Amino acid sequence: MRREDAGRRRQFRQVLRSVFPEELKFSIFVLLPKLSTMWETKQCLISYSLKRTQTNSTDFSRWELKKKRLIAKLNQTRNKGQFTVEAMVETGSILMWLPLVVLGLFVLKWVLKRVNVWIYESKLGEKKHYLPPGDLGWPFIGNMLPFLRAFKTSDPDSFIRTYTTRYGRNGLYKVHMFGNPSVIVTTPETCRRVLTDDDAFQPGWPKSTMELIGRKSFIGISFEEHKRLRRLTAAPVNGHEALSVYIHYIEETVVTALEKWSKMGEIEFLTHVRKLTFRIIMYIFMSTESEHVMDALEREYTNLNYGVRAMAINLPGFAYHKALKARKNLVAAFQSSVTNRRNQKKQNVSSNKKDMLDNLIDAKDENGRTLDDEEIIDVLLMYLNAGHESSGHTIMWATIFLQEHPEILQKAKEEQERIVKKRAPGQNLTLKETREMEYLSQSLLLMERGFYQVIDETLRVITFSLTAFREAKSDVRMNGYIIPKGWKVLTWFRDVHLDPEIYPDPKKFDPSRWEGYTAKAGTFLPFGLGSHLCPGNDLAKLEISIFLHHFLLKYRVERSNPGCPVMFLPHTRPKDNCLAKITKTTPGSRSEKVKRIFQQFDGNRDGGLSREEMSALVVAVNPRVKFSDEQISAILDEVFRTYAEFIDGDRGLTHDGLLRTYDDGAGDVDHGKPKADNVDAVSEAGWSRELGPSSDSSDKRVIHWEESSHDYTVFVKELGVLRSKADGARSKEEAFDGHMAIGRVLYEHQLFKEALVSFKRACELQPTDVRPHFRAGNCLYALGKCKESKDEFLLALEAAESGGNQWGYLLPQIYVNLGISLEGEGMVLSACEYYREAAILCPRHYRALKLLGSALFGVGEYRAAVKALEEAIYLKPDYADAHCDLASSLHAMGEDERAIEVFQRAIDLKPGHVDALYNLGGLYMDLGRFQRASEMYARVLAVWPNHWRAQLNKAVSLLGAGETEEAKRALKEALKMTNRVELHDAISHLKQLQKKKVKTNGNSVNEEGPFIVVEPSKFKTVGEKTTLRPDLAAALEIRAFQRVTRLGKCDVEALRREMRDNDVPVSYSGNGVPLKSIRKPTLEEILRRLLNVLKPETFQGAIKAVNERILTVLDDSGSGRIDLGMFYAVIAPLCGGHQNKRKRVAFDALLWRPGNEGSSRITKADAFKYINLLRAVYIQSQGMSEMLEVHGETDASTVTFNQFLGMYDDSEWGFGIMTTVVKLETRDRNRHGNQVCSVCRYPIIGSRFKEVKTGFGLCNQCYSEGKVPPAFKQQEEYSFREYGSEVEAMKANFELKYLLIMELSNRLMLIDCEMVNLSVFVKRIG
């Protein structure tokens, strides 16, 4: 049977060969395996072929019958998924080219994969047969694509696993990576050989890496030079003596940072830890502690590191291009520092502390040669990079691993507690104690390495340094293979540290594996090995130990996204930079406090807080809020629902549940009372102004000419001759020099308009030269043209940045002057950015720091202002302006006594400092020290006799001091100086001062005050239109904010146009939520367009109010980015336009956000978040408590515009107060004739509130504050009716009188009737 089948198959193949065309044979045989194996299909093919061969046969009837039967049977098989002959023949013509294409692709791949082999191996001759196994990859890119692909997944080890799987674990594999043919070594023995054999291997970092780190750093210099520099630089960061010097600074910095982070809420933990380690290394190397400078430099280092492991593609958009720009900025900053330090040494300016920069500048070899600037900068750049990246990442991962393994955390914590117990009271951490963290006392059963177990295990698991690069000096034999001369060698640390034969279960964090274990050479390489061992490893471990010591004793970390993906390039880190919250766990702060609170409110001592006990706790936590029963019930419902797992039956919330509520952000019962704002002083603390683009012209003769005078005409004519001579010079360069010389002379004599013409001509001659643009910008600023000045400085900046290091010395001053010109336009936030850039490039630029502090004060960021100004004063102790601004910032923060001292210091430095004298006078007035205030204002007037504000405030302070006659004279002088509206404010202030009664010897003056304050429950309203007292108080505050920001001048339709016309790119928050977010300076530009009618100084005040009130709430994380859609929605209610239109634009702004864009509905979560933001921003009595509880924030349902309006207008949970605000907008200019407020005696403007029983009237302010005249203090309650205008009041009075008259007439009619009846009765009796 088999033989018969075989014969049939042969016959079948012969028929195919003889019958089918040649071009179909290949396709047919390709398709045959896919055809059915049924014999009918084969017979069908035979029948088809027989037809082709028997065309001359006469017996067609039999053939046709057989053919029909076979085709019918074939069609039955087709229904089962088989091929028909017709289909096969048609498909054959289509698919005949497919194998050829596939074959061609395989051939092309083979050729391309052999290109690198031909290029690099063909020149080796017979040595190529002894190369390690591997794959040199594609031309140019080599194996970088699979490397990057693997390291961007969750399994980076898949890259090296492909080699070990294909070629076995022989420890060496040839590759082509980072632009060079290379050999990867993956075993401890081969790594140790490569790292320690300096005769065979030298540093071989890729060209791209050396371009970023520096060719004259450790990775690019000779062996002898490396030994010399290492010996010089390693001493200050290693050894007992060096570490003893820095341990106290490190501990102080760590303690301060942890305390600060615990108060910041959610932070990017890795980012802040890196800033901490960078601060430490900057102090050690450059004695720099300026926070602004270090933050900016650390950001540049971040960009630099992303490019180190990236492909060297220098095109915009690639990481390497961005890294090169970061290096350029870092080099410019370090160059400035080196130059300044060299100048100090030339001037014999000594410093108390000698840092690494001093050592590098003073270093000399045996021939007396010193290091040049490039060598110093490259060494600094390398050390500062390595000195904070590894420590920062290790601290972050060690903290995460400890928090994820409670048993390990407890064990490490107990070790630290034992160390603390042995410490003397008040003593700080010592170096000896850090050594004790390695081994505990011998009395313990186990010899523990303590922290170093944790640190070493962390270093092993994360393997911060992926690889080290070496280059073979000559052909090197290793493990039977040859590494050719010039080839790179990559020691793959990660494969060593995660080798299961060395470390069982290698990816598990298990510090116990180090107990009694000593790593063999080459098996543990976190800091390298051999002569290139990391010189700062002792310092790094000290930093990590100190941080973990304090962290374990007092803090814990709670990650926001524990399952966040991990990125492995350039270093292993969570994608969200470990978004987390740092909380205190010290016995004296949170746990003990919560325990005391629990015991205090657990009245029945049953171990739980019932609803009654919890309601008492809620009231105690919020002493200034008066809750209704419904509010307390709603709060308790939310608490008991959220923490249901901690509810113990009828007993209520357990102690653990209460502790969890506090960990989640609940309040405390011992909140301090906030300092109330003082509104009594007329003066406002300001900051001194500086003319930025100025030169020292004290010894120059300043010329003042009238442009219409004859002398000026002659001068212009002679100047024209000089310019013509300059234009007629032999070359452009000489003409340029001539115009620049003319411009400088004119500028020195303050002839700015004429100087500008010369500098503009110089700009035309050499457009890419920085100097004429810079000088032209100075002239324009001096002429008051801030916008044109800004444009010139931007041109100068562009020219300087494109010119390389040639104009590096001018960059800081360009940034400073650019910031000053922006301040002239009112753009203070943008100015801050440029001042920061200047301080980064030149850390000792005290004027940049001073201007930065002044600008930060101007936007209400007082703490940051204090830091910048203190740094400026540290650099220039006799800087009077900086002292003045620092004192103003301290006053704004409430540190009045310290502010007085700093103001006095500024006056001592410059006795005629008007701003210091004026603001000190305002401070004394705030404190009620009126005599001292009047003295300060008198000193201001001695310097500036026409200072009308000082004269006015002098009158106020004299009145406060009781010198009435002197006050009257001062007020008359002020009236002579000006007739401005501020005088009315002064009158208001005088009356407010009269309301304060001075206490003498503990007894009050017996006179009764001008008003009494009545509790809100006694204020009743008459009529539906009368505003409630609490609502009016909140609305007045919102209206005051609206006036300061001038948002009412911005039509709400302008917001809609901004959303329609300007495209904002979508970014992602740490939680992965898409946002249209922008930086604050960009937002400032948008506000400038919206409020383009405002003057610069007015716009500055508006920005300050917006930043303090709105941006601080929207940017609660401190990232500096604002959700633009939410910002538009928040300001829409205060913009100009009809009330309904404002609500519609707010809804459209929420629709504009990425989560809702393209829909007609918004999510309920967004709606609730928006309403709560409105209340948190505008209703200050609510404050951030509104943000602690966002109702429905996880609700994914959507709401329409009408539903949104219902939520918005809700009087209790919404923003229904907007109706009252709109009422104030329409009425706040209405006057009520001669009607005055019965309390403040001011003419009533706006609404008048009339007490219906006694008839006295109150203004908006007095009504909202609950003030009534003392003559009516005996009333049990007060009923008020609101009148919007005097016409409305007269109409109401007329209606009342009409009713009274009608009532009187009715009574008279009744009396008449009674009299008639009486007369009839008398007649009857008579």
Automatic annotation (TrEMBL):
GO cellular component, one term: plasma membrane
Keywords (A to Z) from UniProt: Heme, Iron, Membrane, Metal-binding, Monooxygenase, Oxidoreductase, Repeat, TPR repeat, Transmembrane, Transmembrane helix
Annotated membrane topology: Single-pass membrane protein
Alphabetized GO MF terms: calcium ion binding; ent-kaurenoic acid monooxygenase activity; heme binding; iron ion binding
Name of a matching Pfam family: TPR_16
Transmembrane segments: 94-112
Gene Ontology biological process terms in this record: gibberellin biosynthetic process
Entries under InterPro entries matching the protein: Cyt_P450 (IPR001128), Cyt_P450_CS (IPR017972), Cyt_P450_E_grp-I (IPR002401), Cyt_P450_sf (IPR036396), EF-hand-dom_pair (IPR011992), EF_hand_dom (IPR002048), TPR-like_helical_dom_sf (IPR011990), TPR_rpt (IPR019734)
Subcellular location, record wording: Membrane
Gene3D superfamilies given in the database record: Cytochrome P450, EF-hand, Tetratricopeptide repeat domain
TPR repeats: 736-769, 846-879, 880-913, 914-947
Cofactor(s) in the UniProt record: heme
EF-hand domain: residues covered: 589-624
This protein's pathway: Hormone biosynthesis; Plant hormone biosynthesis; gibberellin biosynthesis
CDD domains assigned: CYP90-like
Main location: membrane
Domain of life: Eukaryota
PANTHER family: EF HAND FAMILY PROTEIN, PUTATIVE, EXPRESSED-RELATED
Family the UniProt entry places it in: Belongs to the cytochrome P450 family.
Protein name stated in the entry: EF-hand domain-containing protein
Species the sequence originates in: Thlaspi arvense (Field penny-cress)
